[in-house]
Queue: 4 jobs
Job 1
Amino acid sequence: MFDVALGGVLVTMLLVLVRGVLGPTAYDRLLAANAFGTVTILLIPVAGFWTGPPEWLDLAIVYALVNFVGTVAVAKYARFGGLADDERVKEQP
Protein backbone atom coordinates (compact mmCIF):
# COMPACT_ATOMS: atom_id res chain seq x y z
CA MET A 1 0.00 0.00 0.00
CA PHE A 2 2.78 2.43 0.85
CA ASP A 3 4.48 1.58 -2.45
CA VAL A 4 1.47 2.91 -4.35
CA ALA A 5 1.27 6.02 -2.17
CA LEU A 6 4.98 6.71 -2.57
CA GLY A 7 4.71 6.27 -6.34
CA GLY A 8 1.73 8.61 -6.52
CA VAL A 9 3.53 11.28 -4.51
CA LEU A 10 6.64 11.00 -6.72
CA VAL A 11 4.56 11.30 -9.90
CA THR A 12 2.84 14.36 -8.45
CA MET A 13 6.23 15.88 -7.62
CA LEU A 14 7.36 15.30 -11.21
CA LEU A 15 4.24 16.98 -12.61
CA VAL A 16 4.62 19.96 -10.29
CA LEU A 17 8.28 20.27 -11.24
CA VAL A 18 7.34 20.33 -14.93
CA ARG A 19 4.76 23.04 -14.23
CA GLY A 20 7.38 25.07 -12.40
CA VAL A 21 9.82 24.87 -15.29
CA LEU A 22 7.21 25.62 -17.97
CA GLY A 23 5.25 28.24 -16.00
CA PRO A 24 4.85 31.38 -18.09
CA THR A 25 4.79 33.81 -15.15
CA ALA A 26 6.65 34.20 -11.89
CA TYR A 27 3.45 33.54 -9.95
CA ASP A 28 3.03 30.19 -11.71
CA ARG A 29 6.55 29.27 -10.68
CA LEU A 30 5.91 30.45 -7.12
CA LEU A 31 2.75 28.37 -6.93
CA ALA A 32 4.62 25.35 -8.32
CA ALA A 33 7.38 25.80 -5.73
CA ASN A 34 4.78 25.97 -2.96
CA ALA A 35 3.00 22.87 -4.31
CA PHE A 36 6.35 21.05 -4.57
CA GLY A 37 7.03 21.88 -0.92
CA THR A 38 3.57 20.67 0.08
CA VAL A 39 4.01 17.40 -1.78
CA THR A 40 7.44 17.02 -0.17
CA ILE A 41 5.72 17.37 3.20
CA LEU A 42 3.50 14.45 2.15
CA LEU A 43 6.51 12.48 0.93
CA ILE A 44 8.35 12.61 4.26
CA PRO A 45 5.72 10.76 6.36
CA VAL A 46 4.92 8.28 3.58
CA ALA A 47 8.61 7.44 3.25
CA GLY A 48 8.82 7.20 7.03
CA PHE A 49 5.94 4.72 7.21
CA TRP A 50 7.38 2.81 4.25
CA THR A 51 10.77 2.30 5.92
CA GLY A 52 9.43 1.45 9.37
CA PRO A 53 8.43 3.52 12.39
CA PRO A 54 7.44 7.08 11.41
CA GLU A 55 10.22 8.95 13.16
CA TRP A 56 10.31 11.67 10.50
CA LEU A 57 7.01 13.33 11.36
CA ASP A 58 8.75 16.10 13.31
CA LEU A 59 10.87 16.84 10.27
CA ALA A 60 7.73 17.10 8.12
CA ILE A 61 6.18 19.60 10.54
CA VAL A 62 9.30 21.78 10.56
CA TYR A 63 9.50 21.60 6.77
CA ALA A 64 5.85 22.69 6.55
CA LEU A 65 6.58 25.77 8.66
CA VAL A 66 9.66 26.66 6.62
CA ASN A 67 7.72 26.14 3.38
CA PHE A 68 4.92 28.46 4.51
CA VAL A 69 7.21 31.24 5.74
CA GLY A 70 9.39 30.99 2.64
CA THR A 71 6.42 31.16 0.28
CA VAL A 72 4.99 34.20 2.05
CA ALA A 73 8.39 35.94 1.98
CA VAL A 74 8.94 35.26 -1.73
CA ALA A 75 5.38 36.36 -2.57
CA LYS A 76 5.87 39.62 -0.65
CA TYR A 77 9.22 40.19 -2.35
CA ALA A 78 7.69 39.53 -5.79
CA ARG A 79 4.77 41.88 -5.10
CA PHE A 80 6.50 44.77 -3.34
CA GLY A 81 10.15 44.41 -4.33
CA GLY A 82 11.38 44.02 -0.77
CA LEU A 83 10.67 42.46 2.59
CA ALA A 84 10.88 45.57 4.78
CA ASP A 85 7.86 47.68 5.59
CA ASP A 86 8.73 50.93 3.82
CA GLU A 87 6.29 53.13 5.78
CA ARG A 88 7.92 52.33 9.12
CA VAL A 89 11.36 52.97 7.69
CA LYS A 90 10.30 56.40 6.40
CA GLU A 91 8.87 57.48 9.78
CA GLN A 92 12.12 56.96 11.65
CA PRO A 93 14.39 60.03 11.86
Job 2
Amino acid sequence: MAVWTPPGKRNRVIVIQTSTESTDSYGGTVHTWSTFATVWALARPLRGRDLVAAQAAQNLTELVFNIRYLAAVLPVMRIVYGGKNYDITAVINIEEANREIDIMAKTGLSEG
Protein backbone atom coordinates (compact mmCIF):
# COMPACT_ATOMS: atom_id res chain seq x y z
CA MET A 1 0.00 0.00 0.00
CA ALA A 2 1.37 3.38 -0.97
CA VAL A 3 1.80 6.06 1.64
CA TRP A 4 1.02 9.73 1.06
CA THR A 5 4.15 11.75 0.29
CA PRO A 6 4.58 15.22 1.83
CA PRO A 7 5.21 17.83 -0.88
CA GLY A 8 8.58 18.81 0.65
CA LYS A 9 9.95 15.33 -0.10
CA ARG A 10 9.57 15.89 -3.85
CA ASN A 11 13.00 17.42 -4.39
CA ARG A 12 13.97 16.23 -7.87
CA VAL A 13 12.91 17.74 -11.18
CA ILE A 14 11.81 15.28 -13.86
CA VAL A 15 10.63 15.81 -17.41
CA ILE A 16 7.75 13.71 -18.70
CA GLN A 17 7.90 13.36 -22.47
CA THR A 18 5.47 12.12 -25.08
CA SER A 19 6.32 10.61 -28.45
CA THR A 20 4.99 12.01 -31.69
CA GLU A 21 5.27 10.62 -35.19
CA SER A 22 5.81 12.67 -38.29
CA THR A 23 6.73 11.99 -41.87
CA ASP A 24 10.09 13.12 -43.22
CA SER A 25 10.70 14.43 -46.73
CA TYR A 26 11.39 10.88 -47.96
CA GLY A 27 8.08 9.50 -46.67
CA GLY A 28 9.65 7.74 -43.70
CA THR A 29 8.33 7.87 -40.15
CA VAL A 30 10.26 9.94 -37.63
CA HIS A 31 9.68 9.57 -33.88
CA THR A 32 10.41 12.64 -31.78
CA TRP A 33 10.00 13.29 -28.08
CA SER A 34 8.46 16.49 -26.76
CA THR A 35 7.95 17.74 -23.22
CA PHE A 36 4.54 16.95 -21.75
CA ALA A 37 5.33 18.31 -18.26
CA THR A 38 8.24 19.30 -16.02
CA VAL A 39 7.43 18.50 -12.38
CA TRP A 40 8.91 18.01 -8.92
CA ALA A 41 9.19 14.36 -7.89
CA LEU A 42 10.40 12.02 -5.19
CA ALA A 43 12.61 9.40 -6.88
CA ARG A 44 12.81 6.06 -5.06
CA PRO A 45 14.88 3.16 -6.36
CA LEU A 46 12.82 0.02 -6.75
CA ARG A 47 15.62 -2.30 -7.71
CA GLY A 48 18.65 -2.63 -9.93
CA ARG A 49 20.19 -5.65 -11.53
CA ASP A 50 22.95 -6.47 -13.93
CA LEU A 51 22.20 -8.44 -17.06
CA VAL A 52 24.47 -10.20 -19.51
CA ALA A 53 22.99 -10.19 -23.01
CA ALA A 54 24.85 -10.85 -26.23
CA GLN A 55 28.10 -10.82 -24.25
CA ALA A 56 27.59 -7.16 -23.32
CA ALA A 57 27.08 -6.10 -19.74
CA GLN A 58 23.94 -4.05 -19.15
CA ASN A 59 22.44 -2.48 -16.08
CA LEU A 60 18.68 -2.37 -15.55
CA THR A 61 17.43 0.20 -13.03
CA GLU A 62 13.84 0.55 -11.86
CA LEU A 63 12.58 3.63 -10.02
CA VAL A 64 9.29 4.91 -8.66
CA PHE A 65 8.67 8.62 -9.21
CA ASN A 66 6.04 10.14 -6.91
CA ILE A 67 4.46 13.37 -8.20
CA ARG A 68 1.38 15.47 -7.56
CA TYR A 69 -1.61 14.21 -9.50
CA LEU A 70 -1.32 14.94 -13.20
CA ALA A 71 -4.02 13.65 -15.52
CA ALA A 72 -3.09 11.97 -18.81
CA VAL A 73 0.29 10.50 -17.81
CA LEU A 74 0.46 7.22 -19.75
CA PRO A 75 2.80 4.21 -19.96
CA VAL A 76 3.63 5.13 -23.57
CA MET A 77 5.47 8.21 -22.27
CA ARG A 78 8.96 8.41 -20.80
CA ILE A 79 10.75 10.29 -18.04
CA VAL A 80 14.05 12.11 -18.37
CA TYR A 81 15.88 12.22 -15.04
CA GLY A 82 19.55 12.48 -14.18
CA GLY A 83 20.58 12.42 -17.83
CA LYS A 84 18.82 9.10 -18.45
CA ASN A 85 15.61 8.12 -20.21
CA TYR A 86 13.20 5.96 -18.22
CA ASP A 87 10.41 3.99 -19.91
CA ILE A 88 7.17 4.26 -17.92
CA THR A 89 5.83 0.82 -17.03
CA ALA A 90 2.88 1.79 -14.79
CA VAL A 91 1.02 4.84 -13.52
CA ILE A 92 -0.74 4.44 -10.16
CA ASN A 93 -3.27 6.97 -8.81
CA ILE A 94 -2.63 6.67 -5.06
CA GLU A 95 -5.85 5.64 -3.28
CA GLU A 96 -7.74 6.85 -6.40
CA ALA A 97 -7.81 10.26 -4.67
CA ASN A 98 -6.42 12.34 -7.57
CA ARG A 99 -3.84 13.91 -5.22
CA GLU A 100 -0.65 12.11 -6.23
CA ILE A 101 0.58 9.37 -8.53
CA ASP A 102 3.40 6.87 -8.48
CA ILE A 103 5.07 6.34 -11.84
CA MET A 104 7.02 3.09 -12.13
CA ALA A 105 9.78 3.35 -14.70
CA LYS A 106 12.87 1.51 -15.89
CA THR A 107 16.04 2.25 -17.78
CA GLY A 108 18.96 0.23 -19.02
CA LEU A 109 17.77 -1.87 -21.92
CA SER A 110 16.02 0.32 -24.45
CA GLU A 111 17.08 3.72 -23.05
CA GLY A 112 13.79 5.30 -24.18
Job 3
Amino acid sequence: MNFSQKIGLFCLILITAAYIYFSFFQKMDFSNRIGNPSIENSKQQENVIDNNKQANIEKHIVKTVKIYVTDSNGNLRSVSRKCDTNLEKSCFAYAIKELIAAPSDWEKKKGLSSEIPSATKILSIREDSDNVLVDLSTAFESGGGAESTYIRVHQLIKTVLSNTKLPVYLYIDGKQANVIGGEGIMIKQPLSERSLDD
Protein backbone atom coordinates (compact mmCIF):
# COMPACT_ATOMS: atom_id res chain seq x y z
CA MET A 1 0.00 0.00 0.00
CA ASN A 2 1.61 3.25 -1.08
CA PHE A 3 1.55 6.52 0.82
CA SER A 4 -1.40 8.04 -1.07
CA GLN A 5 -3.50 4.94 -0.43
CA LYS A 6 -2.69 5.13 3.29
CA ILE A 7 -3.74 8.81 3.30
CA GLY A 8 -6.97 7.92 1.48
CA LEU A 9 -7.74 5.10 3.93
CA PHE A 10 -7.01 7.36 6.89
CA CYS A 11 -9.34 10.08 5.49
CA LEU A 12 -12.08 7.49 4.90
CA ILE A 13 -11.82 6.24 8.52
CA LEU A 14 -11.82 9.84 9.78
CA ILE A 15 -14.94 10.73 7.75
CA THR A 16 -16.72 7.55 8.87
CA ALA A 17 -15.89 8.28 12.55
CA ALA A 18 -17.06 11.87 12.20
CA TYR A 19 -20.30 10.74 10.54
CA ILE A 20 -20.99 8.22 13.33
CA TYR A 21 -20.16 10.78 16.03
CA PHE A 22 -22.33 13.58 14.63
CA SER A 23 -25.17 11.26 13.58
CA PHE A 24 -25.47 9.29 16.82
CA PHE A 25 -23.68 10.78 19.82
CA GLN A 26 -24.44 14.44 19.14
CA LYS A 27 -28.17 13.69 18.50
CA MET A 28 -28.41 11.77 21.79
CA ASP A 29 -26.69 14.53 23.70
CA PHE A 30 -28.92 17.19 22.14
CA SER A 31 -32.13 15.33 22.93
CA ASN A 32 -30.93 14.73 26.49
CA ARG A 33 -30.24 18.42 26.91
CA ILE A 34 -33.60 19.68 25.67
CA GLY A 35 -35.62 16.59 26.57
CA ASN A 36 -37.46 14.34 24.19
CA PRO A 37 -40.27 16.50 22.79
CA SER A 38 -42.69 13.61 22.41
CA ILE A 39 -42.11 12.55 26.04
CA GLU A 40 -42.40 16.15 27.25
CA ASN A 41 -45.66 16.63 25.33
CA SER A 42 -47.00 13.37 26.73
CA LYS A 43 -46.16 14.48 30.28
CA GLN A 44 -47.82 17.85 29.71
CA GLN A 45 -50.95 16.14 28.38
CA GLU A 46 -51.01 13.83 31.42
CA ASN A 47 -50.71 16.86 33.71
CA VAL A 48 -53.61 18.61 31.92
CA ILE A 49 -55.76 15.46 32.17
CA ASP A 50 -54.90 15.08 35.88
CA ASN A 51 -55.71 18.75 36.51
CA ASN A 52 -59.04 18.41 34.68
CA LYS A 53 -59.92 15.29 36.67
CA GLN A 54 -59.10 17.12 39.90
CA ALA A 55 -61.22 20.11 38.87
CA ASN A 56 -64.16 17.83 38.03
CA ILE A 57 -63.83 16.03 41.36
CA GLU A 58 -63.83 19.37 43.18
CA LYS A 59 -66.90 20.59 41.25
CA HIS A 60 -68.77 17.29 41.61
CA ILE A 61 -70.53 17.64 44.95
CA VAL A 62 -73.39 15.43 46.05
CA LYS A 63 -75.52 16.85 48.86
CA THR A 64 -78.16 15.06 50.89
CA VAL A 65 -81.57 16.70 51.03
CA LYS A 66 -84.50 15.70 53.22
CA ILE A 67 -88.11 15.47 52.20
CA TYR A 68 -91.10 14.49 54.32
CA VAL A 69 -93.65 11.77 53.61
CA THR A 70 -96.20 9.99 55.77
CA ASP A 71 -95.99 6.51 57.26
CA SER A 72 -98.85 4.02 57.58
CA ASN A 73 -99.97 5.69 60.82
CA GLY A 74 -100.17 9.12 59.21
CA ASN A 75 -97.03 10.41 60.94
CA LEU A 76 -94.46 12.46 59.07
CA ARG A 77 -91.20 10.70 58.26
CA SER A 78 -88.10 12.16 56.61
CA VAL A 79 -86.46 10.38 53.70
CA SER A 80 -83.24 11.36 51.97
CA ARG A 81 -82.41 12.17 48.39
CA LYS A 82 -78.99 12.74 46.80
CA CYS A 83 -78.64 16.06 44.99
CA ASP A 84 -75.85 16.08 42.40
CA THR A 85 -74.73 19.70 42.01
CA ASN A 86 -73.44 18.92 38.51
CA LEU A 87 -77.01 18.16 37.43
CA GLU A 88 -79.08 20.44 39.67
CA LYS A 89 -78.83 24.24 39.81
CA SER A 90 -80.39 24.28 43.28
CA CYS A 91 -80.61 21.51 45.85
CA PHE A 92 -83.52 23.34 47.51
CA ALA A 93 -85.49 23.27 44.25
CA TYR A 94 -84.49 19.62 43.82
CA ALA A 95 -85.88 18.83 47.30
CA ILE A 96 -89.24 20.44 46.43
CA LYS A 97 -89.35 18.57 43.11
CA GLU A 98 -88.68 15.29 44.94
CA LEU A 99 -91.31 16.12 47.58
CA ILE A 100 -93.95 16.63 44.90
CA ALA A 101 -92.92 13.35 43.18
CA ALA A 102 -92.54 11.31 46.40
CA PRO A 103 -92.71 8.57 47.49
CA SER A 104 -90.52 6.30 45.39
CA ASP A 105 -91.66 2.77 44.51
CA TRP A 106 -89.36 1.35 47.19
CA GLU A 107 -90.81 3.77 49.79
CA LYS A 108 -94.35 2.80 48.78
CA LYS A 109 -93.48 -0.84 49.46
CA LYS A 110 -92.34 0.23 52.93
CA GLY A 111 -95.77 1.76 53.57
CA LEU A 112 -94.83 5.40 52.99
CA SER A 113 -97.14 7.77 51.16
CA SER A 114 -97.82 11.46 50.58
CA GLU A 115 -100.85 13.69 51.03
CA ILE A 116 -99.67 15.99 48.25
CA PRO A 117 -101.96 15.45 45.23
CA SER A 118 -100.17 13.83 42.31
CA ALA A 119 -101.52 16.53 39.96
CA THR A 120 -99.58 19.24 41.83
CA LYS A 121 -97.14 21.15 39.64
CA ILE A 122 -94.26 23.44 40.57
CA LEU A 123 -94.97 26.70 38.74
CA SER A 124 -91.77 28.39 39.91
CA ILE A 125 -89.18 28.51 42.66
CA ARG A 126 -87.45 31.84 43.09
CA GLU A 127 -84.41 31.95 45.34
CA ASP A 128 -82.49 35.10 46.20
CA SER A 129 -80.28 36.23 49.05
CA ASP A 130 -83.22 37.34 51.23
CA ASN A 131 -85.97 34.75 50.76
CA VAL A 132 -87.42 31.92 48.69
CA LEU A 133 -90.79 31.88 46.90
CA VAL A 134 -92.36 28.51 46.07
CA ASP A 135 -95.30 28.78 43.66
CA LEU A 136 -97.43 25.63 43.29
CA SER A 137 -100.45 24.89 41.13
CA THR A 138 -103.97 24.96 42.58
CA ALA A 139 -103.99 21.14 42.64
CA PHE A 140 -101.90 21.40 45.83
CA GLU A 141 -104.90 22.62 47.82
CA SER A 142 -107.62 20.51 46.23
CA GLY A 143 -109.22 17.33 47.57
CA GLY A 144 -108.70 15.15 50.61
CA GLY A 145 -110.41 17.21 53.30
CA ALA A 146 -109.02 19.33 56.13
CA GLU A 147 -106.79 16.65 57.67
CA SER A 148 -105.15 15.78 54.36
CA THR A 149 -104.60 19.49 53.58
CA TYR A 150 -103.07 20.07 57.00
CA ILE A 151 -100.67 17.13 56.55
CA ARG A 152 -99.57 18.14 53.02
CA VAL A 153 -98.83 21.70 54.16
CA HIS A 154 -96.89 20.27 57.09
CA GLN A 155 -94.93 18.02 54.68
CA LEU A 156 -94.00 21.11 52.68
CA ILE A 157 -93.09 23.16 55.77
CA LYS A 158 -90.79 20.50 57.23
CA THR A 159 -89.16 19.93 53.83
CA VAL A 160 -88.39 23.62 53.25
CA LEU A 161 -87.10 24.10 56.81
CA SER A 162 -84.76 21.12 56.37
CA ASN A 163 -83.22 22.49 53.18
CA THR A 164 -82.78 26.24 53.65
CA LYS A 165 -82.30 28.78 56.42
CA LEU A 166 -83.91 31.55 54.36
CA PRO A 167 -87.56 32.59 54.87
CA VAL A 168 -89.79 30.63 52.48
CA TYR A 169 -93.14 31.89 51.21
CA LEU A 170 -95.78 29.63 49.66
CA TYR A 171 -97.70 30.88 46.63
CA ILE A 172 -100.60 29.14 44.90
CA ASP A 173 -101.03 29.99 41.25
CA GLY A 174 -99.07 33.23 41.59
CA LYS A 175 -100.74 34.49 44.78
CA GLN A 176 -99.38 34.28 48.32
CA ALA A 177 -101.23 31.49 50.10
CA ASN A 178 -102.64 32.75 53.38
CA VAL A 179 -105.59 30.35 53.26
CA ILE A 180 -105.40 26.80 51.87
CA GLY A 181 -108.21 24.56 50.62
CA GLY A 182 -111.98 24.69 50.74
CA GLU A 183 -111.89 24.29 54.53
CA GLY A 184 -109.94 27.55 54.78
CA ILE A 185 -106.84 26.42 56.69
CA MET A 186 -104.93 29.56 57.66
CA ILE A 187 -101.17 29.72 57.03
CA LYS A 188 -98.82 32.21 58.63
CA GLN A 189 -95.98 33.22 56.31
CA PRO A 190 -93.05 32.80 55.99
CA LEU A 191 -93.39 29.06 56.50
CA SER A 192 -92.36 27.85 59.94
CA GLU A 193 -93.27 25.17 62.49
CA ARG A 194 -95.88 27.63 63.81
CA SER A 195 -97.43 28.47 60.43
CA LEU A 196 -100.44 26.23 61.10
CA ASP A 197 -101.00 27.29 64.72
CA ASP A 198 -104.36 28.94 65.42
Job 4
Amino acid sequence: MIDPFDGGAIRKLWATDLAAFRDHLLRLDSSTRRNRFGMAAGDEFVARYAETGFTLDTVIHGAFVDGRLVGVGELRRIAGDRGAAEAAFSVEPAHQGRGFGSRLMEAVILTARNRGIRRLFMNCLASNSQMQRLARRHGAELEFESGDVVGLVLPEDPSPVTWLREAVGDASGWTTAVMELQRRSVIGGWFGRA
Protein backbone atom coordinates (compact mmCIF):
# COMPACT_ATOMS: atom_id res chain seq x y z
CA MET A 1 0.00 0.00 0.00
CA ILE A 2 1.52 3.31 -1.02
CA ASP A 3 0.77 6.13 1.34
CA PRO A 4 3.01 9.17 1.03
CA PHE A 5 3.52 11.00 4.30
CA ASP A 6 6.42 12.89 5.78
CA GLY A 7 8.58 11.96 2.80
CA GLY A 8 7.84 8.24 3.10
CA ALA A 9 5.68 5.45 1.75
CA ILE A 10 4.21 2.20 3.09
CA ARG A 11 4.08 -0.93 0.95
CA LYS A 12 4.22 -4.71 1.27
CA LEU A 13 7.65 -6.25 1.12
CA TRP A 14 8.43 -8.89 -1.50
CA ALA A 15 11.17 -11.54 -1.59
CA THR A 16 13.34 -9.02 -3.49
CA ASP A 17 13.28 -6.89 -0.31
CA LEU A 18 14.99 -9.53 1.85
CA ALA A 19 18.31 -7.64 2.02
CA ALA A 20 16.53 -4.39 2.90
CA PHE A 21 14.54 -6.20 5.63
CA ARG A 22 17.69 -7.75 7.10
CA ASP A 23 19.61 -4.46 6.92
CA HIS A 24 16.75 -2.60 8.63
CA LEU A 25 16.72 -5.08 11.51
CA LEU A 26 20.53 -4.92 11.79
CA ARG A 27 20.40 -1.10 12.01
CA LEU A 28 18.16 -1.22 15.09
CA ASP A 29 20.00 -0.14 18.22
CA SER A 30 20.14 -2.53 21.19
CA SER A 31 17.14 -0.95 22.95
CA THR A 32 14.94 -1.05 19.83
CA ARG A 33 16.03 -4.63 19.11
CA ARG A 34 15.17 -5.63 22.67
CA ASN A 35 11.74 -4.06 22.29
CA ARG A 36 11.19 -5.75 18.92
CA PHE A 37 12.33 -9.26 19.91
CA GLY A 38 11.53 -9.14 23.64
CA MET A 39 15.16 -9.96 24.46
CA ALA A 40 18.71 -8.99 23.60
CA ALA A 41 19.30 -10.01 19.98
CA GLY A 42 22.72 -10.13 18.35
CA ASP A 43 23.50 -9.66 14.68
CA GLU A 44 23.61 -13.40 13.92
CA PHE A 45 20.17 -13.99 15.47
CA VAL A 46 18.71 -10.98 13.62
CA ALA A 47 20.16 -12.08 10.26
CA ARG A 48 18.77 -15.62 10.69
CA TYR A 49 15.39 -14.20 11.68
CA ALA A 50 15.30 -12.03 8.56
CA GLU A 51 16.01 -15.09 6.37
CA THR A 52 12.80 -16.73 7.65
CA GLY A 53 10.68 -13.63 7.07
CA PHE A 54 9.59 -14.55 3.58
CA THR A 55 9.31 -18.32 4.07
CA LEU A 56 6.76 -18.45 6.87
CA ASP A 57 3.06 -17.63 6.63
CA THR A 58 3.95 -13.95 6.97
CA VAL A 59 3.03 -10.65 5.35
CA ILE A 60 5.46 -7.80 5.97
CA HIS A 61 4.80 -4.12 5.30
CA GLY A 62 7.62 -1.64 5.13
CA ALA A 63 7.97 2.09 5.69
CA PHE A 64 10.36 3.66 3.20
CA VAL A 65 12.01 7.07 3.28
CA ASP A 66 13.97 8.07 0.18
CA GLY A 67 14.00 4.42 -0.95
CA ARG A 68 15.41 3.12 2.35
CA LEU A 69 13.44 0.74 4.58
CA VAL A 70 13.18 2.36 8.02
CA GLY A 71 10.30 0.45 9.64
CA VAL A 72 8.35 -2.79 9.33
CA GLY A 73 5.06 -4.26 10.47
CA GLU A 74 4.88 -8.05 10.38
CA LEU A 75 1.78 -10.25 10.38
CA ARG A 76 2.51 -13.91 11.20
CA ARG A 77 -0.20 -16.53 11.48
CA ILE A 78 -0.09 -18.60 14.63
CA ALA A 79 0.56 -22.24 13.78
CA GLY A 80 -2.46 -24.46 14.26
CA ASP A 81 -4.96 -21.58 14.46
CA ARG A 82 -5.93 -20.07 11.09
CA GLY A 83 -7.99 -17.40 12.84
CA ALA A 84 -5.13 -16.00 14.92
CA ALA A 85 -1.97 -14.10 14.09
CA GLU A 86 0.74 -12.10 15.77
CA ALA A 87 1.80 -8.59 14.80
CA ALA A 88 5.28 -7.19 15.42
CA PHE A 89 6.73 -3.78 14.63
CA SER A 90 10.05 -1.99 14.47
CA VAL A 91 10.94 1.54 13.46
CA GLU A 92 14.49 2.82 13.44
CA PRO A 93 15.08 5.33 16.25
CA ALA A 94 15.71 8.30 13.91
CA HIS A 95 12.26 7.77 12.37
CA GLN A 96 10.19 7.13 15.50
CA GLY A 97 7.47 9.60 16.42
CA ARG A 98 6.69 10.42 12.76
CA GLY A 99 3.59 8.24 12.33
CA PHE A 100 5.28 5.24 10.74
CA GLY A 101 4.23 2.83 13.50
CA SER A 102 0.60 3.86 13.22
CA ARG A 103 0.58 3.56 9.41
CA LEU A 104 2.23 0.14 9.63
CA MET A 105 -0.36 -0.93 12.23
CA GLU A 106 -3.19 0.15 9.92
CA ALA A 107 -1.69 -1.86 7.05
CA VAL A 108 -1.26 -4.96 9.23
CA ILE A 109 -4.83 -4.75 10.55
CA LEU A 110 -6.21 -4.37 7.01
CA THR A 111 -4.22 -7.42 5.88
CA ALA A 112 -5.36 -9.44 8.89
CA ARG A 113 -8.96 -8.45 8.28
CA ASN A 114 -8.80 -9.52 4.62
CA ARG A 115 -7.34 -12.90 5.60
CA GLY A 116 -10.08 -13.71 8.08
CA ILE A 117 -7.88 -13.21 11.15
CA ARG A 118 -10.26 -12.96 14.12
CA ARG A 119 -7.63 -12.40 16.84
CA LEU A 120 -4.50 -10.32 16.32
CA PHE A 121 -2.00 -10.53 19.18
CA MET A 122 0.83 -8.13 19.96
CA ASN A 123 3.34 -9.09 22.62
CA CYS A 124 5.70 -6.53 24.09
CA LEU A 125 7.79 -5.91 27.16
CA ALA A 126 6.07 -4.13 30.03
CA SER A 127 8.63 -1.33 29.60
CA ASN A 128 7.70 -0.78 25.92
CA SER A 129 5.25 2.06 26.44
CA GLN A 130 5.42 3.17 22.78
CA MET A 131 4.06 -0.18 21.58
CA GLN A 132 1.38 -0.16 24.26
CA ARG A 133 0.20 3.32 23.18
CA LEU A 134 0.18 2.23 19.54
CA ALA A 135 -1.85 -0.88 20.37
CA ARG A 136 -4.37 1.11 22.45
CA ARG A 137 -4.82 3.68 19.66
CA HIS A 138 -5.89 0.82 17.40
CA GLY A 139 -8.39 -0.68 19.82
CA ALA A 140 -6.24 -3.33 21.51
CA GLU A 141 -7.17 -4.66 24.92
CA LEU A 142 -3.98 -5.01 26.98
CA GLU A 143 -3.24 -7.63 29.62
CA PHE A 144 -0.13 -7.69 31.78
CA GLU A 145 1.42 -11.15 32.13
CA SER A 146 4.64 -11.69 34.12
CA GLY A 147 6.71 -8.80 32.79
CA ASP A 148 5.13 -8.77 29.35
CA VAL A 149 2.08 -7.13 27.88
CA VAL A 150 -0.23 -8.93 25.46
CA GLY A 151 -2.45 -6.78 23.27
CA LEU A 152 -5.45 -8.21 21.45
CA VAL A 153 -7.14 -6.57 18.45
CA LEU A 154 -10.31 -8.09 17.03
CA PRO A 155 -10.34 -7.15 13.32
CA GLU A 156 -13.70 -6.65 11.64
CA ASP A 157 -14.87 -8.90 8.82
CA PRO A 158 -13.48 -8.16 5.37
CA SER A 159 -15.58 -6.27 2.87
CA PRO A 160 -15.34 -5.49 -0.85
CA VAL A 161 -13.94 -2.08 0.13
CA THR A 162 -11.14 -3.57 2.27
CA TRP A 163 -10.24 -6.07 -0.47
CA LEU A 164 -10.13 -3.24 -3.00
CA ARG A 165 -7.96 -1.09 -0.70
CA GLU A 166 -5.46 -3.92 -0.34
CA ALA A 167 -5.49 -4.76 -4.08
CA VAL A 168 -4.91 -1.13 -5.09
CA GLY A 169 -2.18 -0.82 -2.47
CA ASP A 170 -0.52 -4.01 -3.70
CA ALA A 171 -0.56 -2.83 -7.32
CA SER A 172 0.94 0.53 -6.37
CA GLY A 173 3.44 -1.09 -4.03
CA TRP A 174 4.55 -3.61 -6.63
CA THR A 175 5.03 -0.85 -9.21
CA THR A 176 7.07 1.18 -6.74
CA ALA A 177 9.19 -1.86 -5.81
CA VAL A 178 9.93 -2.63 -9.46
CA MET A 179 10.81 0.99 -10.20
CA GLU A 180 13.12 1.08 -7.17
CA LEU A 181 14.78 -2.18 -8.25
CA GLN A 182 15.31 -0.76 -11.74
CA ARG A 183 16.67 2.48 -10.31
CA ARG A 184 19.18 0.56 -8.19
CA SER A 185 20.17 -1.56 -11.22
CA VAL A 186 20.73 1.50 -13.41
CA ILE A 187 22.72 3.31 -10.73
CA GLY A 188 24.70 0.16 -9.90
CA GLY A 189 25.31 -0.52 -13.59
CA TRP A 190 26.28 3.07 -14.29
CA PHE A 191 28.72 3.40 -11.39
CA GLY A 192 29.91 -0.18 -11.69
CA ARG A 193 31.36 0.44 -15.18
CA ALA A 194 35.12 0.72 -15.57
